[in-house]
Write a structure and sequence with these properties.
CATH superfamily: Vaccinia Virus protein VP39
Bound molecules: S-adenosylmethionine
Shape: globular
Number of strands: 10
Radius of gyration: 18 Å
Structural class: alpha/beta
Largest sheet: 7 strands, mixed
Strand order of the largest sheet: 4-3-2-5-6-10-9
């Protein structure tokens, strides 16, 4: 069965696999994606956070532990929201179940919006990005990560057995859904070229400040061989964009 977005994470076996995978040492999330997201967001102290596709909410626990003023996580998966509510219990953080396609956010409420590894599940980013721009305070910052477009456009045949040794990128400029086998299931991820993400963020009225590809840093890895492997191909694209102040507009 091919699953989409939050429904994928609401399959019990897939959810279990995903959570176990995230506990491993040197995951790509911990070694590559998170360090860049944190660098681009800057100090969380005193910031009001909205976290889209918040998953199990552990990012929120970390942000609040570093003096973020507030944290609201939104996710479409029942399993994820249950885990997020558990993880956030005893903190000031809140987790709410909602699909990003249905967002209707309060204007000028947040100084930081994050969306880590969720936007490649969304078919049309227009509504979500407009809501992000609306919900940011002036000068507020939006940081998101997605699976890198060379990964969402590389074919499944090159992934079939064991540790992947080659990545065949094809139909790169054809944005659209691609079905992939992952975590023991089949899931739809929406491929876009790097320039499509860049243009979509600008079209929402945000100013792109940084574009990063999570270049591996030796100090983030306990294993030299894995560090060398991670230098072969980019796994993540990360963009930071700011809501202009009125005088910038
Ligand atoms: C790869 S996980 C990332 C979780 C978390 N941001 C992290 O980095 O640990 C993707 C998350 O996006 C959520 N998601 C996917 N599509 C969504 C949608 N259309 N609306 C809301 N959440 C969605 C999933 O339920 C899942 O929790």
């Amino acid at each position: 069965m091919i699953l989409e977005g939050p429904n994928f994470y609401d399959d019990a076996a897939i959810f279990d696999n995903y959570m176990k995978r995230r506990e491993r040492a040197d995951t790509p999330n911990d070694t590559l994606e998170l360090p860049i997201v944190e660098e681009l967001l800057g100090s969380p102290a005193g910031q009001d956070f909205l976290d889209l596709g918040c998953g199990d909410g552990r990012f929120g626990v970390k942000l609040l532990g570093r003096e973020a003023s507030s944290y609201i996580g939104v996710d479409g998966s029942e399993n994820m929201i249950r885990a997020a509510q558990e993880n956030l219990s005893g903190t000031a953080g809140i987790a709410m179940r909602m699909k990003l396609e249905a967002l209707d956010l309060q204007a000028a409420k947040y100084s930081r919006v994050s969306a880590r590894l969720v936007l490649h599940y969304i078919e049309d980013l227009t509504h979500t990005l407009r809501e992000v721009a609306k919900s940011l305070k002036q000068n507020g910052l939006f940081v998101f990560s997605v699976e890198h477009p060379v990964i969402t456009s590389s074919d499944l045949a090159s992934k079939e057995s064991g540790l992947r040794q080659n990545w065949t990128v094809d139909d790169y400029f054809n944005a659209g859904p691609r079905v992939t086998s992952w975590m023991g299931g089949s899931v739809v991820k929406h491929h876009r070229a790097v320039e499509d993400y860049f243009a979509a963020v600008r079209a929402a009225g945000l100013q792109v400040e940084s574009l990063r590809e999570a270049r591996p840093r030796r100090e983030n890895f306990s294993d030299e061989a894995l560090f060398l492997r991670r230098k072969r191909i980019p796994l993540f694209l990360i963009i930071a964009a700011r809501k202009p102040t009125r005088t910038d507009a």
